[in-house]
Amino acid sequence: MGIKEDGEDGVEKNGIREPLISDHASNKGHPWMVYFTTLVAVCGSYEFGTCAGYSSPTQDAIRSDLGLSLAEYSLFGSILTFGAMIGAITAGPIADLIGRKGAMRVSSAFCVAGWLVIFFSEGPIPLDIGRLATGYGMGSFSYVVPVFIAEIAPKELRGALTALNQFMICGAVSVSFVIGNVLSWRTLALIGLIPTGVLLLGLFIIPESPRWLAKRGRGKEFETALQTLRGKDADISQEADEIQDYITSLEQLPKPKLLELFQTRYLRSVTIGIGLMVCQQFGGINGICFYLSSIFELAGFSAFAGTVIYACLQIVITGLGAALIDKAGRKPLLLVNSKQRTTHLQTL
Known about the structure:
Number of helices: 15
Pfam families: Sugar_tr
Number of domains: 1
Protein name: Sugar transporter ERD6-like 7 isoform X2
Strand order of the largest sheet: 1-2-3
Structural class: mainly alpha
Number of strands: 3
Distance between the termini: 42 Å
Keywords: Membrane, Sugar transport, Transmembrane, Transmembrane helix, Transport
CATH architecture: Up-down Bundle
Membrane topology: Multi-pass membrane protein
Organism: Arachis duranensis (Wild peanut)
Oligomer: single chain
Radius of gyration: 21 Å
Strand content: under 5%
Order of helices and strands: EEEHHHHHHHHHHHHHHH
Largest sheet: 3 strands, antiparallel
């Protein structure tokens, strides 16, 4: 299975260029529906951040109310990542089977169930079960939301709209840090239901991914969804033919196997991709996010002031990255980020 980037024009697999959606600047439609659909989808990203940012501001209150030991609360905070791992692994097959919208509904259901279990918890076991469920939904959102956005976004908007996914995650974490210092932990759990509620309602309005519909052979729905995204006056004939040609060519190829990724010709690409993800996680962002309040307290700083400053900086830097990603390029931003992260970790 040969996969390589083809600039901003899509992905090339075994010599076949995959159109994520539109590369045609001649479309006359207005992208307002793309914007609206993206805003609905990134409610899942916001839910991701809400789940990740919950444990830090609520640590003292939950331990005091339920009598949890430090070890019990540490398990509560970290079990989220185990659920997220399962969610991320299973999200791909689910999204391919029932669609991107269907996968987001499944993710939302897990998050709703998890938050309700946390809200009614009176001991460590229900807390862990609820946290595990929200982790599953969070992990599933981490896959399906950026894939959905990439499949509906036109070329000129793809980078910025995809970056909005990360912006909403950081924004939600920051909001949780701030309001978690003034609200009870049970109330904060109920607030976690709001993004999923908005997402579930929005999914009744927005179209399914045209590319997924084409892949499933649902031609009429494919054209309707694409027309909705591009505008009723847009000419989608060339774009539709391009996507259909890709799907037809893809079906004629032998089914790819995971072990093919470890062949010599793919070694460099796989190493870069996995290496970036490993470096991201080993930077310690999850540990900082889950226990930020405690970190500031142990360092002798005000937990409230520290989390507010951290939240504001996170939003500003993420917004700056979203604005620069299409202009400065991915690699320069990665290099700058890596240098800054190395310096900060050495300082700590």
